[in-house]
């Protein structure tokens, strides 16, 4: 009888453990597409949902062509890569960025085809993917609408033109906990066509790199079609990191170069 009782107790403990593991793996955003996303992007790698990976987005996006997103994985430490994707977009991957010598934090804007979770997955040095996300509700159509630039001759003259602003977060009162920190915001003229509009092929910035004046890498961004037209990227630079100009370089999928220097 004691043996049977022990077996029953062991069975209950195993059931509780299995239930706990199941709940830990359950998608907190309850998306029907999560299983597909996990297979597409992570394969057999270890994946955990982690509140330390923050995605800041509007609950309702009025303009599906230009949805502001902020990703912050700085609380993790040792972040090697951050992947951003939208479950229900026809093109799921939005971008990847590699923090190199800046914080694992990036602001940008995306196109959304319909209401969807927007997620960020940060891979730490141990190979684990830490996933956070937010639901964004929208009327949709952002990925299948033509860009404004594609219908204007102006973009051909200004293609890949970079404008930038650098300011002190301390001086502007952005964050009292970030003394001496600089914020860099880039805007690049580019139509960022998805290729999902009849007669307009995919045409988008593929790679963007930031380096200091000595050529040391600060940040790399591998962008995809869902990044908004005339993309804007916001980066926080740690105190004392920049002693001179910042080099911006990159290319789009047609091989057109991006090349400029920014004075902090």
Q: Provide the gyration radius in Å.
A: 21 Å
N-to-C CA distance:
77 Å
Q: From the 3D structure, determine the CATH topology.
A: Immunoglobulin-like
Q: What is the domain tally? A: 1
Could you characterize the architecture of this molecule?
- This protein has 264 residues and is α+β, with helices and mostly antiparallel strands.
- It has one domain: Sandwich (Immunoglobulin-like).
- Helices cover 16% and strands 38% of the residues.
- It contains 4 helices and 16 strands.
- Strands 1, 3, 5, 6, 8, 9, 12, 13, 15 and 16 form a 10-stranded mixed sheet that branches. The chain has a 3-stranded antiparallel sheet with strand order 2-4-7, with no helix packed on it. Strands 10-11-14 form a 3-stranded antiparallel sheet.
- β15 (246-252) and β16 form a beta hairpin.
- The longest helix has 24 residues, at 2-25.
- It is globular.
- The N and C termini lie far apart (77 Å).
- Residues 1-24 have low confidence and may be disordered.
